[in-house]
Design goal:
Elements: E1 3-7, E2 10-12, E3 18-25, E4 32-39, E5 46-51, E6 58-60, E7 68-73, E8 78-83, E9 92-100, E10 114-115, E11 119-123
Parallel strand pairs: 2-11
Antiparallel strand pairs: 1-3, 3-8, 4-5, 4-9, 5-6, 7-8, 9-10, 9-11
Length: about 120
């Protein structure tokens, strides 16, 4: 059973940090790229970050550059997204998704094959 499970979300004050995890089961991540997306109420799901495998390459949306950092630990079959300097506008459900080997060029949701159920991140005073 192919499954992705996000964890690490929660309530944090502006300027705070969280570390999100995306754990894979039913398959191994070593040949798969992982993308992170987020969706706020009433808004479209948007790409946040991505990390490839093999010749490792990363992507960050302009809105999170310099604040978020993506990494992978294939031995643990897990990808992480470190969220720093959080802002209220970062509040959303964060999803991880996977596709074969490399991140897509368009970062579209339709480019990814498997999705997790999401983890809530709330940034508020």
């Amino acid at each position: 059973q192919v499954q992705l499970v996000e964890s690490g979300g929660g309530l944090v004050q502006p300027g705070g940090s969280l570390r999100l995890s995306c754990a894979a089961s039913g398959f191994t991540l070593d040949k798969w790229a992982i993308g992170w997306f987020r969706q706020a109420p009433g808004k479209e799901r948007e790409a946040v970050s991505c990390i490839s495998t093999g010749d490792i390459n990363t992507y960050y949306a302009d809105s999170v550059k310099g604040r978020f950092s993506i990494s992978r630990d294939d031995a643990k079959n897990t990808v992480y997204l470190q969220l720093n300097s959080l802002k209220p506008e970062d509040t959303a459900v964060y999803y991880c998704a996977t596709r074969w080997f490399r991140c897509s060029g368009s970062h579209g949701t339709s480019d990814y094959d498997y999705w997790g159920q999401g983890t809530q991140v709330t940034v508020s005073s």
